[in-house]
Structure formats: C-alpha cells, structure tokens
Amino acid sequence: MPLTDEALAEAGTQLADVLKQRELTIATAESCTGGWVAKVLTDRAGSSSYVLAGLVTYSNDAKRGLLGVTELSLGEHGAVSEPVVREMVAGALATTGADVAVAISGVAGPGGGSDDKPVGTVWFAWGRSATDTEAVVEQFQGDRDQVRRQAVLYVLQGVRGFLEKA
C-alpha cells in the first residue's frame, strides 16, 4: 500500500508535538528528500515556534559550503554515507543554532545506484550535538517517490524516538 500524504502529516504532527512540549527547535539538512521533511513540519500553522530552518543541500558543493561537510568525507565515503550525514547534522546545528537537527542523504533513483549503494539506500542522522548524534542506514524499495516518502516517514519517526529517549 502506498505511503500517503496523511501518514506523513500524522508523523509530522507527532514530532511537532514532542518539539513543542519540550520547547525545542529543529533544523533539517536534506539531500535526496529535497526539503520534504521541512515541508511536512511547516504544514501546520504555528510551526515557526519549532522549525528554525530547512536546508536543501543536494550537491556536494552545497554540503561543503552550507554545512561544512569536509572534502575528505565526501571523497573517501561519498555523499551517501555515515560520516557525511553526521557532518550535515553538525553543520546544521552550527549554522542555525537549532536544538536538534536531522540529515538525510540517499540514492532515490531511478539511476545513480551502485553495487555498494543501490537505489533505495538512505543514510540518516539526527542529533543535538556532535557527541549526541545517531546515524542509521536503511534500504527502501520502490520508485523514486516511494523511496523519498519512506525516507521522510523514517526520519520523522526516528528523530521523535531519539527525543523521547532523552
């Protein structure tokens, strides 16, 4: 069954409720989702109380220039990797001053995949500081839209779980 806009909106509402309850702000650093996480979080009136910024860093140049991702990480590991999403979180926190940041970088397809990073591979990170960041990789199935929808849902639920543990 396709992942609906309503399911994404519900996940966004649940994360927004946690952010508001804890009086936290969030910044997003997105690549393959193209700002979709920020869109879901800002669909609600009053979202300016918890959404500080949304950065779409699709190119490696943007990752370097806006988030401070190092050439070393990009060169050794590629944009779709744990070191890069961790640096994206650190950069989003430093750039925006948000309390929490999320980062997503993946291969949404239909092309661009490789043997070690096939289409559907998405790295996520979320954290409150460079030393309090979690990163995880997932492999999603489906076309480009389905991969991106699954990635948006995963990060909304993941950061909510991270904050609820704190």
TrEMBL record:
It holds the Pfam family CinA. Residues 13-161 form the CinA C-terminal domain. It comes from the Bacteria. Gene3D superfamilies: CinA-like (3.90.950.20). InterPro entries: CinA-like_C, CinA_C. Transmembrane segments: none annotated. This is Competence damage-inducible protein A. It comes from Marinobacter algicola DG893. The lineage of its organism: Bacteria, Pseudomonadati, Pseudomonadota, Gammaproteobacteria, Pseudomonadales.
